[in-house]
């Protein structure tokens, strides 16, 4: 997942200052490894390469920009497509459960029948359209605030991936709806706020492009 790259073009980034780096660590053979120090900020390029994935996940949940930079630039994680689909399903289910009459059915055997109803697919379509509109709006704002244009389509894809991965908070919609209580509406609002905060921190991982 991590390591030194043979290409002359830097592909890694310092999680502290976002400067490019040719490697994350240097292998001195015989099991001796040394983390690369960033030439710009004089800090380890990526301290998370020594961390357990659980710790990295916790740091991402705490919305630390360094954790997002590690995930986006220095770790090979390609689950953003599946994660986006699952988040849309969670949001569609949440919307479907809030439809009049849907919450009155408690028989678990009815779930498959409910999932096949057109209302569920309609909610999925609405959620997908709203997500597309939301991402389009973000890109319009970001492109208008750019200090310099994107160099390639890969940088556009990186921004897109960052937004999809940082929307993982939508997975909390399912337990919030299943364990329904008087504070469910408040929980849903807090989840939305958490997703927006995560999106903001993920975008900060690309601040070298923007004026904020």
Automatic annotation (TrEMBL):
InterPro entries: Arv1. The keyword Endoplasmic reticulum applies. It is found in: Endoplasmic reticulum membrane. Pfam families: Arv1. It is a multi-pass membrane protein. Keywords: Endoplasmic reticulum, Lipid metabolism, Lipid transport, Membrane, Transmembrane, Transmembrane helix, Transport. The chain crosses the membrane at residues 123-146, 158-179. Mediator of sterol homeostasis involved in sterol uptake, trafficking and distribution into membranes. Belongs to the ARV1 family. This is Protein ARV. It comes from Staurois parvus.
């Amino acid at each position: 997942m991590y390591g030194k790259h043979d290409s002359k073009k830097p592909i890694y980034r310092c999680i502290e200052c976002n400067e490019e780096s040719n490697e994350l660590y240097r292998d001195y053979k015989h099991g001796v490894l040394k983390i690369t120090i960033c030439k710009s900020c004089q800090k380890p390029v990526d301290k998370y390469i020594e961390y357990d994935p659980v710790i990295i996940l916790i740091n991402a949940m705490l919305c630390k920009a360094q954790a997002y930079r590690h995930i986006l630039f220095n770790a090979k994680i390609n689950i953003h497509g599946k994660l986006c689909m699952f988040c849309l399903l969670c949001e569609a289910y949440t919307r479907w459960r809030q439809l009049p009459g849907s919450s009155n059915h408690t028989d678990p055997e009815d779930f498959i029948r409910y999932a096949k109803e057109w209302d569920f697919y309609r909610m999925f379509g609405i959620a997908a359209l709203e997500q597309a509109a939301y991402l389009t709006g973000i890109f319009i704002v970001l492109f208008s605030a750019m200090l310099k244009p994107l160099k390639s389509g890969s940088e556009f894809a990186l921004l897109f991936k960052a937004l999809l991965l940082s929307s993982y908070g939508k997975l909390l919609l399912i337990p919030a709806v299943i364990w329904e209580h008087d504070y469910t509406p408040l929980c849903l609002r807090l989840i939305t706020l958490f997703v927006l905060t995560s999106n903001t921190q993920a975008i900060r991982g690309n601040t070298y492009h923007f004026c904020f």
